[in-house]
Amino acid sequence: MSIVETRRRLAIVIPMLALIVSACGSQGTSSPAASSGASGGTGETVEIRWYCCLGTGEDAEAQLPTENRIVEEFNATHPNIHLTFEVVTYDEARDTLATQLAAGNPPDIVGPVGIGGAEAFHGEWLDLNPLIEQSGFDLSKYEQAAVELYAAGGEGQVGIPFAVYPSVLFYRKSLFDEAGLNEPPHAYGDPYVWPDGTEAEWNYDTIKELGLRLTVDENGKDATEAGFDPSAVVQYGYEPQRDDLRGMGAYFGPGSIDSGDGQTAEIPAAWADSWKYFYDGMWKDGFILTGPDYDSDQWAGQVDYAFFTGRVAMSTNFLWSTYGVAEGGDDWDVAAVPANGSTTTSPLNADTFRIMKDSKHPSEAFEVLSYFLQDASPDLLNIYAGMPAVPSEQDDFFTTYQEQFPNQVDWQVVKDSLQYADIPNWEGYMPAYNETLDRILAYGDKWATTEGLNMDDEIAALQAEIQGIWDQ
Fold first, then answer.
1. What residue numbers bound the domain in which 39 lies?
2. From CA 388, how far away is CA 162, in angstroms rounded?
3. Are 75 and 82 in contact (CB under 8 A)?
4. Averaged over 427-455, what is the pLDDT?
5. What is the pTM of this model?
């Protein structure tokens, strides 16, 4: 399981109680069973098991009360189904689910779960197409690209859009003001305007130039000035979303390590370019934190992300990272993600609920799924801090979401960013998913902590090692 899933869980989970619930335990409250001809008119009440938490969902104060209430309300209004809620802590959830599958005792519905969390169980999800057609579930309210996100990997339509977390550029207004710089553009396609009125394309070259001017040492000199001390930096210019090399690469363009035949590993050229850009930004240019600095108590060691300290000027990250941006002050806002050449990409995280293909009651499980995505959707999206995948619901979501922030945030940027989502998604299918991901994470750690590497050689070595895994 990737570090990004851990970050996403922390986006909601503030102080966490240690909840370890047995694989067959229930946290939901059931209603009295009623006879309603659910299973072929037999009058039996069908039990549907909801399994959590491969992603978020386990917070005892912020999430479980709402989830349990939703279970109670569902059971009270659906006498043909008895919904039970199984909470397994994030750290145990993957192994526990694997054990249940091996024992032939799968849950019916799983979620919320992201693309990566689901791909760890590739091939175990039900194709929803027959149930969508049978029930008349309306997919037209979603953007087509969001629907297609769950139709990749050769499994059919394994999900329906629910919560989406586009990427944006977070920035600190006060740090731009102190440097005498204009703020980044909020509208996609707009240029960056320098203080003298000249314009520059809003791309990663401009991010680098800004990043150098916004990287400051303890004597107040920025990284473009003579006498700048790179060993005494107190403010950095830029911080990428670095949890997973695939996600880092996706900011330069969509792609997959799977060349398309399910057998051949191939690093996308845009990803290789991004890795070299970020590596140079850490070890050569110095406007991005190195791994040791990033993990130190002075920076991200205590607050998950360096941007949360208030001493990083810009950071590309997902919407869910709003959970910690205010720790560094209320002077933040969001801007458009920069382009890589002519390509603009806002890498996407997305959560939904999925049905396991071996569910004994797929029709009833789909009834629960539909309830989560419709009736219970506002409450669930609120506790998961997810932007609705339904465009018509997004304005109401952000009106409520804004209430937790004293500073006015330009949420239109977030909505606009969804148009630039990466398809294929960076967390999507690849062979030997878990072992391959472990190797990718190991290389990411190596590059963040080791100076003087030849990145062309490193990227070639990573591709060769992934191919070796796939060939086994």
1. 3-165+349-420
2. 6
3. yes
4. 96
5. 0.87
